[in-house]
Amino acid sequence: MSKFISFITAGDPSLEKTREFIDILAQHSDIIEIGLPFSDPIAEGEVIQAANNRALANGTTTDKVFAMLETVSFDKMVLLAYANPVFVYGYDRFFQRCGQCGVYGVIIPDLPFEERGEAAVFADAYGVHLITLIAPTSAERVQMLAKEATGFIYLVSSMGVTGVRGEFDTDLASIVNQIRDVTQTPVYIGFGISTPEQARHMRNIADGVIVGSAIVKIIAEHGGTSGPHIKQFLKEII
Questions:
Q1: Which of 1.10.10.60, 3.20.20.70, 3.20.20.30, 3.40.50.970 would CATH assign to domain 3-130+193-237?
Q2: 14-222-12 Cα angle (round to 5)
Q3: What is the band of 159 on the pLDDT scale with cuts at 50, 70, 90?
Q4: How far is the C-alpha of 177 from the C-alpha of 174, rounded, in Å?
Q5: Has residue 165 got a pLDDT over 60?
Q6: Mean pLDDT of all residues in 129-148
Q7: What are the boundaries of each domain within the chain?
Q8: 138-166 mean pLDDT
């Protein structure tokens, strides 16, 4: 059965509200991806960049996010974090805290695959998957990345940054086939999926779909009262 993965930014509009929204997402999601706010999230479009800024302005820190996650019982949480805050926090300490909080996996979008070795050592030690991102590139590189992937593969729908897209011109089915030639690791497609039609299309191609900016946009519009709006959106897109 196709999986649904949702994304929110921790601390937007507050960590208390993030905790509330996680409970809502948990009712509809197989995996919840939680963004650790960072001042320079280079893979993010303006919607998630703004959410990062709001969260940082609210005083959200890595330690506070971990403390919040300790109160969550959902067993398939994934953190999206950038290399700089993870490095500054310390790989050992960061992945140890992930393990303590029940974090299933970590996505570090600006950590090149060829340089992930040091982080992977600590991720493995604490039972945390270091999730592989695959962009629409050459078949040779796609398969090289896929062979080493664990947990799941995050297939980027198109080149560029996150954000709602009207259409997709990448031959994603071909890329999924290239991946499945070398691994049975599930493939989930993300970046820009915001409508039920887009979600259905991606589910027909891959093992699941990741929806982020559309949810974050709801929170930007409704703030602390976003709960019912998130519920309605999830009912429509799932």
A1: 3.20.20.70
A2: 20
A3: low
A4: 5
A5: no
A6: 89
A7: 3-130+193-237
A8: 77
Strands (E) across the chain are located at 3-9, 31-35, 77-80, 103-107, 129-130, 132-134, 153-156, 187-190, 208-211
The CA radius of gyration of the chain, in Å to the nearest whole number, is: 17
pLDDT tens column, 95-121: 999 999 999 999 999 999 999 999 999
Number of Cβ atoms within 10 Å of the Cβ of 167: 7
Distance CA(29)–CA(154), nearest Å, equals: 16
For residue 8, with 0-12 CB atoms within 10 Å meaning exposed, 13-18 middle and 19 or more buried, which class applies? buried
**Contact assessment for residue 30 and residue 235, using Cβ atoms and an 8 Å cutoff:** no
DSSP letter (8 states) at residue 38: -
Residue 221 exposure: Cα atoms within 13 Å on the Cβ side? 10
**Which of 144, 148, 143 lies closest to 178, judged by CA?**
143
pLDDT tens digit sequence for 189-234: 998 898 999 999 999 999 999 999 999 999 999 999 999 999 999 9
CA 170 to chain centre: 20
Instruction: State what percent of residues in the chain have pLDDT above 90.
Output: 83
User: CA 33, CA 137: separation in Å to the nearest integer?
Assistant: 24
Handedness of CA 200, 204, 205, 207 (dihedral sign): positive
DSSP structure class, residue 133: E
Both tokens assigned to 108: 């570090």
Q: Are strands 3-9 and 187-190 parallel, antiparallel or unpaired?
A: unpaired
